[in-house]
UniProtKB/TrEMBL annotation, chain A:
Protein name: Carbon-monoxide dehydrogenase medium subunit
InterPro entries: CO_DH_flav_C (IPR005107), CO_DH_flav_C_dom_sf (IPR036683), Diverse_Substr_Oxidored (IPR051312), FAD-bd_PCMH (IPR016166), FAD-bd_PCMH-like_sf (IPR036318), FAD-bd_PCMH_sub1 (IPR016167), FAD-bd_PCMH_sub2 (IPR016169), Mopterin_DH_FAD-bd (IPR002346)
Record key words, sorted: Oxidoreductase
Classification of source organism: Bacteria, Bacillati, Actinomycetota, Actinomycetes, Streptosporangiales
Pfam families in the cross-refs: CO_deh_flav_C, FAD_binding_5
Organism of derivation: Acrocarpospora phusangensis
GO MF, one annotated term: oxidoreductase activity
UniProt domain FAD-binding PCMH-type: residue ranges: 1-221
SMART domains, per the entry: CO_deh_flav_C (SM01092)
TrEMBL record, chain B:
Keywords of the record: Molybdenum, Oxidoreductase
SUPFAM superfamilies noted in UniProt: CO dehydrogenase molybdoprotein N-domain-like (SSF54665), Molybdenum cofactor-binding domain (SSF56003)
Pfam family for this entry, one: MoCoBD_2
Domain Aldehyde oxidase/xanthine dehydrogenase a/b hammerhead: residue ranges: 18-134
Coiled coil: none
Keyword Oxidoreductase appears in the UniProt entry: yes
UniProt lineage: Bacteria, Bacillati, Actinomycetota, Actinomycetes, Streptosporangiales
A GO molecular function held by the record: oxidoreductase activity
Name used for this protein in its record: Carbon-monoxide dehydrogenase large subunit
Organism per entry: Acrocarpospora phusangensis
Domain of life: Bacteria
Length: 330, 750
């Protein structure tokens, strides 16, 4: 690993000033950044430890929403009473990710900005447009079993690996960013970008911005929500496909539907097509299936990941059914 | 016996639990420098330029060693079983003495620095350019070019009895199936590590190895010094599974780096470097065809395999071995062939051959059983041979059917609904599978010395290896029982090439190997003690015959008469008495080798010896997503006498877990365009995690093999065999789907 300067920021103004130094990077829990530094994929000159920032609160907002400080550790967030009762999908998504030790370290901000697990991104000997623009993409003609089926381009087929963000996408979370230039608030849906011809641009964050908080809207429907993660082993593996779902059913008719998929795109994939089918439809197996079919029509398989299309359909249907029958019970 | 057969705690347990046990990368030296490897990024080619300028400028860098400045070493010796000291050669490449690249990942430079971080950073900064040469790296694509594998002294690759193809064609019932297994890696928790220093032309090496003798001999050859100048120390090894049997690049390059810098140097491989420089298990393509009569009796059994080696080396696995020993087929044919790749040589990995061969054989037996409408256990029982099927040799010991019978009872086999996809528990389809486990029993040659001191303590010196199996504990138990002393009176020295040599810790042979010499030495020792007593005036043993006297209660006794070892030695004016088996002189070694070979070959001619067992598995498969979870496991094993029930159970469980990994998750992905391993990390290469493993029940029949020392049959490997087949058979029972390509990932079940 390259030698780097290390400093700890104790307040937000210091942090956002420090990040304007060229080659500087924020350090959250370090569970992604430090690994990438060891692999020489990230080589910052300065590392700004932001874990001491006073951004570790989970607060109720006057409008009934919730504000989560960017330094809140994943474990704490998942265990929080308000999260477990009002937004169970979020607690379940976080607990489905990584391991206990990693979740104890990982911060909310770091989780949002974690990088792809595409194996070619992680190997400096391979071609990767995300890592080195214009070098090519080895995943397209290589091992792409876990690559994207939505929104990929001829330049990049990587997925965003976060579980937490899939739940946040379903919940219409807002990301709050701060820089010396001021504060911005962006919807999480759309924050992560599709690769197009510039896969190195992964999110809407500017290089000098700090994530300070995530806000969840007041969303009564979210109390009845769940997360289903399908992966290659029982624990400690990234999603092949995951589903975050929240629905409200009145008199057998779906009156609100929120659905997002993980493991299928460079962003947590909000399943708008499926939601459209579900809204106003009877809460039946047939509707769930039609919704899944509708969402997956746009999917484009690569040489090895075609199974994800069928898997996503089944995972969506199963999750909606489980939600309907069992509610949020994990 | 007081200790043998009991769940005795590991003698090194406290050391390991408290961190006091030192592993190869933990030996402190003043002035220690750290090394890191630079890996080639092409599969085959020549280095045209190496620029180490930036690397050398990195603060703390001591040396950057490349083929341009490395001192010449002797080339690696060609491995031959006629000279065991050559067997540790892992590849024929003279690393850093050549500009040639033979596999993607081959080390092309070593950086030595004051700190580990500086070494790794500088390694990143070394720039290498290549001219690429055409390379053959795609195993699957090479199948058509496979060439027959030759029979060797240790393993025969081709055997025929009758006309199996004709018998198959004529059989009223038959299966003819193709199986594939991927390459996999060992992933020992301790990455390969070496600490080396030279004192003049004397080399001391702390190395994570399962064979200090082979490592010593190999290094002596490479650095052109006498064997006695090299000492390899390896008392604790953090798992090996065959991956630390040979001498891999890191070991040689650390010794080289220490020589170049004149300092003690430590190299602890990164996980990625382990994947790039230490071979794994070969992938395989197998065919198993079985012909049978309506009643189940097999008329033909054909098993053939294609596996790989590297063009620069590689271990050939006895993939079809199981099919020579398991079933009483009237006609039998096994054939193995090989493809040669521009790739890192593959190597020994837990039950080489049998682990993947048993997957194909035991899966196809299950398919045949379903075709015949017979219970798979019943089909096996109807084909259980009375003598070794290929050559009619007698089995020294074989309780395979007992294993099935006991296992079936305990597992509730009879209660299952035999038809597939018939049992459901909510979203889960539930299935049970069974398969036979099998691994030949080996025994090699160990030298050993014993010293009994007047204070009643015993010192055993023997260069065996402890990679976590519990050998030191087992050998302590046997020593204590044989000499009749308390366990804590026994000290064992092991894991050091300066000790009497014990060969390799492999082939599940170590306990039997060391026990044979230990029992001999104990016999000699008690003879010696008795002779002392008889000669010494005043000894209560005077006038007695040797055969009437037994070693017990810390001395030699006949009925109530006798005395303690301490009294005998003191009365004779001796501080201690020694016994020895084998000799370390050149002549001694040679005679030892000849004696071993002749006994080995004679034994082989007379007996078929093996460990076997029955694996019972229950799986749950999510009906929609195809996620497979193993929910119950029982293994019943015939492994001869069990020395330590606790460490034995732990070994057996470990093998089963490794088998579950092979069945459901493990796969080393090699990019067919570049020959480069794509998932060289534990986050992308999946081994089972705790949540994947249910409670694993293991049972041993504990019936001694009359032809083995103390009745011991090795048990380190047998438990990995049959596991993948039991899982695949259970998946079929649960879902009605046959998966013949490992690993059984959910996409194959959708
Ligand atoms: C073995 C392994 C398995 C894993 N499995 C899963 C899994 O199954 N599911 C899953 O979702 N995740 C998984 N993870 C990823 C894990 O969730 C992330 O590593 C973690 O969430 C990152 O958080 P962090 O605080 O440690 O981020 P860091 O590593 O500290 O930072 C990550 C990135 O975010 C930037 N950053 C951090 N905080 C801020 C901020 N406030 N503002 C601006 N930039 C910031 C950093 O500069 C860096 O670029 C796994 C990780 C590992 C190592």
């Amino acid at each position: 690993m390259k030698d780097f300067a290390y400093l700890t920021a104790h307040d937000v103004p210091t942090a956002v000033r420090a990040i304007t130094t060229p080659g500087a990077k924020f350090l959250g829990g370090g569970t992604n950044l430090v690994d990438l530094m060891r692999q020489n994929i990230e080589r910052p000159d300065t590392v700004i430890d932001i874990t001491q920032l006073p951004l570790d609160q989970i607060e109720e907002l006057p409008d009934g929403g919730l504000r989560i400080g960017a330094m809140v550790r994943n474990s704490r967030l998942a265990a929080h009473r308000l999260i477990r009762t009002r937004y169970p999908v979020l607690a379940q998504a976080i607990l489905a990710g990584a391991s206990g030790q990693l979740r104890n370290m990982a911060t909310v901000g770091g989780n949002v900005l974690q990088r792809t697990r595409c194996p070619y991104f992680a190997d400096l000997a391979a071609r990767c447009n995300k890592r080195e623009q214009g070098s090519g993409c080895d995943a397209i003609g290589g091992f792409n079993r876990n690559a994207a089926i939505f929104g990929a381009s001829e330049h990049c087929v990587a997925t965003h690996p976060s579980d937490m963000c899939v739940a946040l996408a379903a919940l219409d979370a807002i990301i709050e960013l701060e820089s010396v230039r001021g504060t911005r608030r962006l919807p999480l849906v759309g924050f992560h970008m599709l690769p197009g011809d510039s896969p190195q641009h992964e999110t809407a964050i500017a290089p000098d911005e700090l994530i300070t908080a995530i806000e969840l809207p007041d969303l009564p429907a979210a109390a009845r929500s769940r997360y289903r993660k399908v992966r290659d082993r029982s624990s400690y593996a990234f999603a092949l496909v995951s589903v975050a779902a929240a629905t409200e059913v009145r008199n057998g008719v779906i009156t609100e539907a929120r659905l997002a998929l993980g493991g299928v795109a460079a962003r947590p994939w909000r399943a708008h097509e499926a939601e459209r089918v579900l809204l106003g439809a009877p809460a039946t197996e047939d509707s769930f299936l039609r919704a899944a079919e509708a969402e997956l029509t746009a999917a484009v398989p690569l040489s090895q990941n075609g199974f994800k299309i069928e898997l996503a359909k089944r995972a969506i249907t199963a999750t909606l059914r489980q939600l309907h029958v069992e509610g949020s019970a994990a | 016996m007081t200790y043998v057969g009991k769940p005795v705690d590991r003698v090194d347990g406290t050391l390991k639990a408290t961190g006091a046990a030192r592993y190869a990368a933990e030996f402190p030296y003043p002035d220690l420098a750290y090394a890191a490897l630079v890996h080639a990024t092409v599969a085959r080619g020549r280095i045209t330029r190496i620029d180490a300028g930036l690397a050398r400028k990195t603060p703390g860098v001591v040396a950057v060693i490349t083929h341009l400045n490395a001192p010449a070493m002797k080339p690696p010796p060609k491995p031959t079983p006629m000279d065991l000291s050559t067997m540790a050669t892992s590849s024929s490449v003279s690393l850093l003495n050549t500009d040639e690249v033979h596999w993607n990942g081959q080390p092309v430079a070593v950086v030595v620095a004051e700190t580990l971080d500086a070494a790794r950073e500088a390694a990143h900064l070394v720039e290498v350019e290549y001219t690429e040469l055409p390379a053959t790296v795609d195993f699957a694509a090479e199948e058509a070019n496979a060439r027959p594998q030759k029979n060797t002294l240790l393993s025969s690759a081709n055997t025929q009895k009758g006309d199996a193809e004709a018998a198959l064609a004529a059989a009223p019932f038959s299966v003819d199936l193709r199986y594939t297994t991927p390459g996999v890696n060992h992933n020992a928790i301790e990455p390969h590590s070496t600490t080396a220093y030279w004192d003049g032309d004397q080399l001391v090496l702390h190395d994570a190895t399962q064979n200090t003798t082979w490592a010593r001999d190999q290094l002596a050859i490479r650095f052109d010094v006498p064997k006695k100048n090299v000492r390899v120390i390896s008392p604790f090894v953090g798992g090996a599974f065959g991956g630390k049997s040979l001498v891999w690049p890191g070991t040689v390059l650390t010794a080289l780096a220490a020589k170049v810098t004149g300092r003690p140097v430590r190299l602890m491989l990164t996980r990625e470097s382990v994947y790039r420089t230490v071979g794994g298990r070969t992938p395989s393509i197998q065919r198993v065809a079985i012909g049978a009569e309506a009643g189940g009796s097999m008329t033909a059994l054909i098993h053939s395999s294609v596996s790989r080696v590297g063009k620069v080396g590689g271990w050939t696995e006895q993939i079809t071995t199981v099919s020579r020993h398991m079933y009483d087929a009237a006609a039998l044919q096994v054939r193995q062939s090989l493809v040669r790749l521009d790739a890192l040589p593959n190597t020994i990995m837990r039950a080489p051959g049998e682990s993947i061969g048993s997957f194909a054989l035991e899966s196809s037996v299950d398919e045949l059983a379903y075709q015949l409408g017979l219970d798979p256990i019943e089909l096996r029982a109807r084909n259980e041979p009375a003598r070794n099927p290929v050559d009619g040799k007698a089995f020294s010991h074989r309780l395979l059917l007992d294993c099935f019978e006991q296992g079936a009872k305990e597992f509730g086999w009879a209660e299952r609904a035999p038809q597939p996809r018939a049992t459901r528990d909510g979203r889960w389809l539930v299935g049970m599978g069974v398969a036979a486990a099998y691994h030949p029993a080996w025994q090699f040659q160990a030298n050993l010395t014993l010293r009994l001191s007047a204070d009643g303590t015993v010192l055993v010196r023997c260069g065996f290896h402890e990679m976590g199996m519990g050998t030191a504990t087992a050998i302590s138990q046997i020593t204590a029982d044989t000499l009749g002393v308390p366990l804590d009176a026994v000290t064992i020295e092991y894991g050091d090439s300066d000790l009497p040599g014990a060969g390799t810790a492999g082939a599940s042979a170590q306990t039997a190997t060391v026990t044979a010499s230990l029992l001999d030495a104990c016999e000699k020792l008690t003879d010696g003690v008795f002779a002392l007593a008889r000669k010494t005036p005043g000894s209560p043993l005077r006038g007695h015959r040797r055969q009437d006297v037994t070693a017990r209660d810390g001395g030699l006794y006949r009925d109530s008469r006798g005395e303690s070892y301490g009294e005998i030695l003191r009365r004779a004016g001796r501080e201690s008495i020694d016994a020895q088996v084998g000799s370390e002189t050149r002549l001694g070694e040679l005679t030892g080798q000849v004696r071993f070979m002749s006994k080995f070959l004679m034994d082989r001619r007379r007996w078929m010896k093996a460990a076997c067992g029955a694996q019972f598995c229950e799986v749950r498969v999510d009906a929609e997503t195809g996620e497979v979870r193993v929910s119950r496991w029982l293994g019943v094993f015939d492994v001869g006498r069990v020395i330590n029930t606790k460490t034995a159970a732990s070994q057996l469980r470990g093998g089963i877990i490794m088998g579950i990994g092979m069945a459901l998750a493990e796969e080393t992905l090699v990019d067919p365009r570049t020959g480069r391993i794509v998932n060289a990390s534990l986050s992308e290469y999946h081994v089972p995690v705790h949540a994947d493993i249910p409670t694993i029940e293991v049972r041993c029949l504990d019936d001694p093999d009359p032809t083995m020392p103390l009745g011991v049959v090795g048990l380190g490997e047998v438990s990995v065999t049959g596991v993948a087949a039991a899982v695949a058979n259970a998946v079929h029972h649960a879902t009605g789907r046959r998966i013949r390509d490992l690993p059984i990932t959910l996409d194959k079940l959708l």
